[in-house]
Amino acid sequence: MAAIANHSVVSSSGCNTLSPLRRRGSKGVSLLFHDSHGDRPSLRSSSFNPRFPSSNSSSHLSLGIRRTCVEPVRLSASSAPTMEPAKPVSSPTLETIVDVDLGSRSYPIYIGSGLLREPQFLQRHVKGKRVLVVTNTKVAPLYLDKVVDALTRGNSNVSVDSVVLPDGEKYKDMETLMKIFDKAIETRLDRRCTFVALGGGVIGDMCGYAAASFLRGVNFIQIPTTLMAQVDSSVGGKTGINHRLGKNLIGAFYQPQCVLIDTDTLNTLPNRELASGIAEVIKYGLIRDAPFFEWQEKNIQALLARDPSALAYAIMRSCQNKAEVVSEDEKESGTRATLNLGHTFGHAIEAGLGYGEWLHGEAVAAGMVLHPSLAAIEVMAVDMSHRLGWIDSSIVERVMRITKEAKLPTAPPDGMTVDTFKNYMAVDKKVADGLLRLILLKGSLGNCVFTGDYDRKALDETLRAFCKS
After folding, report:
1. Active-site annotation, residues
2. 340, 324, 329, 328: which is closest to 289 by C-alpha?
3. Segment 356-382, tens digit of pLDDT
4. Is the distance from CB of 8 to CB of 163 less than 8 angstroms?
5. Is 17 exposed, middle or buried (0-12, 13-18, 19+ CB in 10 A)?
6. Predicted confidence band at 257 (pLDDT cuts at 50, 70, 90)?
7. What 3-state class would DSSP assign to 133?
8. Structure pTM?
9. Alpha carbon distances (Å) from 356 to 43, 280, 351
């Protein structure tokens, strides 16, 4: 049973210049850095200084973040960072925003340290007077009171209720979803209310789906507290729940009003959850941002050590990539499907073992290696794309190396069989007209294809090579 908490509350620059970097032709994804003067929004983050190599020389252009007003600058996911992690130092109040450009439904992603202490970020996106915070039993004791304070401080017109759900992927189902509707109906929320998702990917997906469905759609805000949710699931409007026969088969595309990422929430994240999020970060480098992958190779230990500068940069860069793709293809009719590298195999692992046995990022990590995998060897080191002659073997070696360094699995668990994989893959969302389409790497690092045109025999051989039966 979900633990339901009725948490009802009624309460009371000069400018540096930054050189714009080369874009990939996508719609507007902008980064804005603001000083904290007057009533400007603020964000406290560890100081970091990513370095972007020039496209035609070995010299570097330094991009420093200082306590001054900086005009908006558009950055490309194709720019090439070689940032070495900076030592944590005292940092000025600062705001970083990545915009998701969807016309009238565009929204900002706020990224930085201490955002839950800054009420203006949330309050500007609350349309009516009623708010429902959806969270879980692990996150509520840590951050619920802070969020309620941020929503109500100096704003006595807003009342906040909360619903605290059980924690875990196994509760991402219809029964638990009904707890959100129960609370919303019992407290007589109306169409001007705002739902706030406070938690990881499970809470974000369920809260978003509830917001999309309640009264045929109400306002909602994402506050992701895990790395996986911060770099992936909170951005782009995918919402939904699982079915016993497959993951995320019931849901809707429904965009939030904003995404607020307080990087301080990662301080309480278990190591296993952190590594799961890093798997999603790695994905962006593999499918579309080779310079980012190169940066990851140099900074993977800093990420695992929770270096604030490295984490802030990884989140920012991942959100840039996700925002560009979503802006181009909101409802996954083409380009956006490439973000699912490893997910077809990964979702089969999650569903086959039982939701929650493997974390999403762990399953995806194994899927990223297995997904393109072909050679029948003890470890899934050679991928399907390489067997097809689509990528060089050095890419496979680099993927294996960084995945192991991130302490992520490189093979499916023993309990997965060929039949289990096939059964769950047959109901994957990327199946079209009975054809299973996969995302495969092709060409140089940072390039991939979404295709059903691959050797089926190769897929069968892969599954037989890495499953015991």
Report:
1. 216, 238, 280, 322, 332, 336, 340, 343, 347, 360
2. 324
3. 444 444 434 444 443 332 222 223 333
4. no
5. exposed
6. very high
7. strand
8. 0.75
9. 34, 17, 9
